[in-house]
Structures are given as C-alpha cells and as structure tokens.
Amino acid sequence: MRGVVAFCSALAIASLAACGGEALAPLPGQPVAGVTASASPSSSPSAPPLSASPSPSASPSPKARRTRTSRPPQPKTSSPKPTDSTGNCLGAVRYDLNLQDTELALVRSMCFHLGGTLRLQGIGPGLVTATPESLVSQFYEAGVVDIRFVRPGTVTVTIPQDTQTYTITVVVIT
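The structure assignment produced for this chain is given below.
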C-alpha cells in the first residue's frame, strides 16, 4: 500500500512540476524521488502540512479496546401511536384476484380505501354479488368482474366456484 501511495505522490508532484505548479509535500516517512528541500511544506505558507494517517490494517491495541467506554443507555421514549387503523388497509388501488390460482377459502376479509377496486379474474357474468349494492360499482367484461368501492362501509362479496360459494368481507374506509 505504501508503494502505491509513494507512486501516486511522485506522479502528482511530477505532473505539477511539469505544469509549472506548486509541488506537494510527500507523506511523512515516505521518500519521493525528484523532490528538493525547497519544496517542503514549511517553504510554502499557503499549503498546510499533511498529517499521517494510520494504515487500514492497523488496529487499536487490546489495552485500548478494554479502556473504551460505551455510552450509557438512553431512556426509551415512546411516540404516540396513530389512532386510525389504516395500517393493514390497501389504498385506493386495484387488487387483482385470479380465481383459478387462488384458494378462496383462505381469503376471508380485505380492507380498501374509497376508490379501491377488487378485480376478480376468471368467472362468468352475473355470478359475483356485492351487497349492499349502494356501496359499490360493479362491472363485468370478458371473464373479469371489477368491484369498485364508492362509499365507506362493509361489503359482502360472494363468489360461487364449483359447488361451493365463498364469501369475502370487505371493509371500506375513507
């Protein structure tokens, strides 16, 4: 690593000297070829002296590690928690539910914000019901039922599949 630093220092000094610029001081303890005594940091008042930094492989001695003190534990402060229950609610988004790939017995309830849409893919026309109808806007096209939630409340969506009817309770919030 020191060889690389010495090479880079020599290269920087050579390029500055070639351009007529001010020479840089080498790092302490590292000789650089081509540097005269007049190019030392003390002869140039505008250039601050460079300080040596420890090599990356250097680590503090075991004694220094033992004498290190840790910060005292800070008291834990609790911030007030939000009072609304929107943490598990989906926003005003479209949620696609492919009825051919989904086990409907596992989907019992959902939560949407106003304007959210439940899209049921892979079902025939007139099979899906959403009650009360005053809270939703339902549309069917090409095997897809879109149920858009237009008013807050609780909507019960029933989906017949094979010989069983599945029910999803959807809570709609503002």
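Interim note for the steering committee: Confidence is low (pLDDT under 50) at residues 38-44, 77-85. The beta strands are 94-98, 109-113, 117-121, 129-131, 136-141, 144-149, 153-161, 164-173.
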